[in-house]
Design goal:
The chain is an alpha/beta fold. It is built from 14 helices and 30 strands. The protein has a 16-stranded parallel β-sheet, with helices on both faces. A three-stranded antiparallel β-sheet has the order 7-9-8. Strands 24-26-28 form a three-stranded parallel β-sheet, with no helix packed on it.
């Protein structure tokens, strides 16, 4: 069992080193640490909170100065609600001066955790790490490559794990990687941040408590697993020598010529991960790593595609932001299984046709994931197929033709973005192409940017593969009558409707519709009355529907109903009658985007 064990609205912490034990419960006030006469006192109200975890009070003290209280609260907040961390920080600050308190409050982490520390907290953390199954340790340690408070999405993490060859090349490796993440969460060393819509038992985002992250960073550096570069001194030869992965958390360090010279001393590095803040202006990227397998440079900006990349033939994962197009001979990188290519600015003109990826893309037969916002796939001139390609994202309707789709036989996820101009008419006829090519499909997403909601729009009835599991629509402007086709899909689990995906004052479902639907999101719709009778619906989110006046109470099997930022009178009504809804109801302001 890991040190942290939490989930839902209640969390517990177990600490068994030296016989100590703590428990956490959820409360609603504030807490702080206050220096007084060289000793640490815990200043807690009757019930107190720090971050996402909470602890009951034991000690009260007299009022201190506002500055001392501010610094104490800041240190307590930096402990991210872990009582064992607060206690350890208190021990470290015993007898320290006010200036030392102030210095600690300005540090990113109030504690540095290593295997060599002789403190109860460090011993407990390291014991949790050592008790992990051996095959899970690289997965766990790899999570330390991300900066503190970085939003670690499940999909991004799994892509990197697969590209790093932690799992070999056997079929279904994405599912195996997902299971590894699930085991880390069960072991309580990784925290679940957001539930996935298709499977509520899976997470969409994850995080590490700073104590575990500190342990990951120190272990990784000593084992040459990865090294973090945040400042100039982190880049010196003695720090980066023989490191397998370089993680840049401050992209400005790449502006130093000396840093590039030092990086030439580690030509065998396998990964270069640039996770610092996004750069508005280009910086130089080192291309000396001839064995590089993973390059994530989305946070950097290139005016033109750096052709030196084509010499890195071992790349399996390439993420890059570039204002120009991919080179015609991109298939030189024949080992790529993930290609993410975005532009810093995406400007569309109504008289221009689609901007296509080079035809050479059809020669990249190992490609599994393709993200290319603002670009399209053109039909291949010969009998080429991308038999391993599973996901395509960012393309427009020009890519959703039978001549293209039929050459991607195993595609199961696609995200289509349509740049609608003022005078354009969109028929959405391409929806039917998926039904004609694929029998089974995992996820379909269509976003219409600047949708034309006038009467010109041809609202054809949507058509999807019969066994599709997830549909997300935005800006399509369908009337609710056209929902019947979607409602008849037997295996549809998640449905997300945003920004006038469907229009009209009333949506009423009938008995027998949506036989498998479990998750429903309605956001920025003009709906006024909602009458749902969906048998297995477990999670409903209604957000920014400012005309909504009534919602049915057919939520007998629904576990969670969330209403965020809707009509004030409707929200007041929901607060008053949520005990009669038959579901756990949350009514308030939205703080997340699902």
């Amino acid at each position: 069992m890991g040190l942290l064990h939490g989930g839902g609205s209640f969390a517990k912490l177990k600490w068994n080193v030296h016989g100590g034990s703590f428990s956490l419960a959820k409360f609603k006030e504030e807490s702080c640490l206050v220096p007084m006469h060289g000793l640490l006192y815990y200043h807690f109200s009757t019930t107190t909170t720090v971050g996402n975890y909470f602890i009951r009070p034991h000690l009260l003290i007299e009022r201190r100065s506002a500055v001392e209280n501010f610094i104490g609260k800041k240190i307590a907040k930096n402990c991210e609600g872990l009582p064992a961390a607060i206690i350890q920080v208190g021990e470290n600050l015993r007898g320290k001066s006010f200036e030392e308190w102030k210095t600690l409050s300005e540090k990113e982490d109030p504690l540095v955790i290593t295997r060599y520390d002789d403190t109860p907290l460090s011993k407990a953390l390291f014991f949790s790490y050592m008790m992990l199954p051996q095959h899970l340790k690289p997965f766990f340690m790899y999570m330390g490559v991300f900066p503190k408070h970085y939003g670690i999405s499940r999909s991004k993490l799994i892509k990197l794990w697969v590209s790093e060859s932690f799992l070999g090349t056997e079929p279904g490796i994405e599912e195996i990687a997902g299971n590894a993440l699930g085991l880390l969460i069960v072991q309580s060393v990784v925290l679940k941040e957001k539930h996935a819509s298709v499977d509520m038992y899976k997470c969409k985002n994850t995080s590490l408590h700073f104590t575990f992250r500190s342990l990951c960073v120190s272990e990784a550096k000593s084992e040459k697993f990865f090294h973090i570069l945040k400042k100039y001194t982190d880049c010196t030869p003695e720090n980066i020598k023989r490191q397998q992965r370089l993680c840049i958390h401050n992209n400005v360090v790449l502006a130093f010529t000396q840093v590039h010279e030092w990086m030439e001393l580690v030509p065998n590095a396998q990964s270069l991960l640039c996770f610092g803040p996004k750069q508005q202006y280009p910086v130089l990227l080192p291309f000396c790593f001839r064995l590089l397998k993973v390059l994530d440079a989305l946070a950097l900006r290139f005016y033109e595609f750096p052709h030196q990349l084509l010499a890195l033939v071992h790349l399996t994962h390439l993420s890059i932001t570039c204002d120009r197009e991919l080179p015609n001979y991109i298939s030189t990188l024949s080992n790529l299984d993930v290609l993410i290519f975005t532009r810093y600015h995406n400007i569309k003109f109504s008289n221009n046709g689609p901007v296509c990826l080079p035809i050479d893309i059809w020669n990249m037969h190992k490609l599994r994931q393709l993200y290319c916002e603002g670009f399209d796939l053109q039909p291949p001139p010969d009998n080429s197929h991308l038999e391993n390609l599973l996901t395509v994202s960012g393309v427009s309707a020009h890519s959703c033709i039978t001549e293209v789709l039929s050459r991607i036989p195993n595609l199961n996820r696609i995200a289509v973005q349509i740049e609608s101009t003022h005078d354009s008419t969109e028929t959405f006829n391409f929806f039917g192409h998926f039904a004609s090519v694929y029998e089974e499909f995992e996820s379909f997403k269509c976003v219409v940017v600047n949708p034309n909601l006038s009467s010109q729009i041809v609202r054809s009835v949507p058509n999807f593969p019969m066994n599709i599991r997830k549909i997300s629509l935005s800006g399509c402007g369908y009337p609710w009558e056209n929902m019947e086709v979607i409602a008849s899909l037997p295996n549809l689990i998640a449905l997300k409707l945003r920004w006038y995906a469907f229009c009209g004052p009333l949506w009423k479902t009938s008995t027998g519709q949506f036989p498998s639907l479990e998750f429903l999101l309605l956001e920025d719709l003009d709906i006024e009355n909602l009458e749902l009778d969906i048998p297995y619906l477990r999670w409903v989110i209604v957000r920014h529907c400012y005309k909504l006046e009534n919602i049915s109470n057919q939520f007998k099997n629904t576990g969670l109903l969330e209403v965020d930022d809707c009509n004030p009178s409707f929200m007041k009504k929901m607060r008053e009658c949520r005990s009669f809804l038959g579901a756990e109801a949350k009514v308030g302001s939205s703080s997340t985007d699902l």
